[in-house]
Design the sequence.
């Protein structure tokens, strides 16, 4: 566990409960299962290209980034094999140590329940705790739910000058107008 995110239980708008925590290398198998549960459209929205099969080497490289090169959070629910991962939000710090690139994936059955907002709010808080000054993400123009969420959280949006199908979402973390994206849902007690 990194100091940038707490382990919390959250009740979503529809009454379902999820557990939020930092990602672990031991999540590999559950992340592969989560990928398999994504429909082709959700995969396209997340990867911005057709991806039919998970790339295990790329997943392992992704998991190896944390916590040194960023923060990643998972939302889990109980399942017959232990847990299922129903949401992932990551922030990767690249060459500029003052900013990071975010990405979010939500299982279809949890879309519209506030999980994306909850994960992004926690990710923004983690970015601030790390002392980052900005976050940005690349979102397909047709991904209107993510674009609406980004705007509600205070991100500015602009067209990607290199790809008209992509919108760049940016959030200045040092700006007083973005100090608190919105109140986080009340944690559930265990």
Sequence:
């Amino acid at each position: 566990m990194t100091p940038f995110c707490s382990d919390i239980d959250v009740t979503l708008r529809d009454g379902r409960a999820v557990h939020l925590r930092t990602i672990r290398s031991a999540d590999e198998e559950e992340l592969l299962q989560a990928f398999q549960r994504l429909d082709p459209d959700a995969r396209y929205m997340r990867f911005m290209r057709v991806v039919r099969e998970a790339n295990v080497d790329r997943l392992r490289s992704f998991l190896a980034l944390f916590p040194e090169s960023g923060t990643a959070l998972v939302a889990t629910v109980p399942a017959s094999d232990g847990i299922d991962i129903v949401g992932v939000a990551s922030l990767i710090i690249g060459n500029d140590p003052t900013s990071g690139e975010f990405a979010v994936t939500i299982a279809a059955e949890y879309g519209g329940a506030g999980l994306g907002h909850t994960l992004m709010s926690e990710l923004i808080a983690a970015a601030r705790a790390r002392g980052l000054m900005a976050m940005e993400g690349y979102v397909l123009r047709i991904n209107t739910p993510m674009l609406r969420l980004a705007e509600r959280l205070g991100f500015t949006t602009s067209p990607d000058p290199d790809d008209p199908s992509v919108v760049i979402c940016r959030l200045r973390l040092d700006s007083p107008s973005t100090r608190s994206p919105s109140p986080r849902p009340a944690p559930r007690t265990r």
About this structure: DSSP finds five helices and nine strands in the chain. The helical segments are 28-37, 40-47, 56-64, 115-129, 144-152. Strands lie at 8-11, 17-22, 70-79, 82-93, 99-106, 134-140, 156-160, 163-172, 187-188.
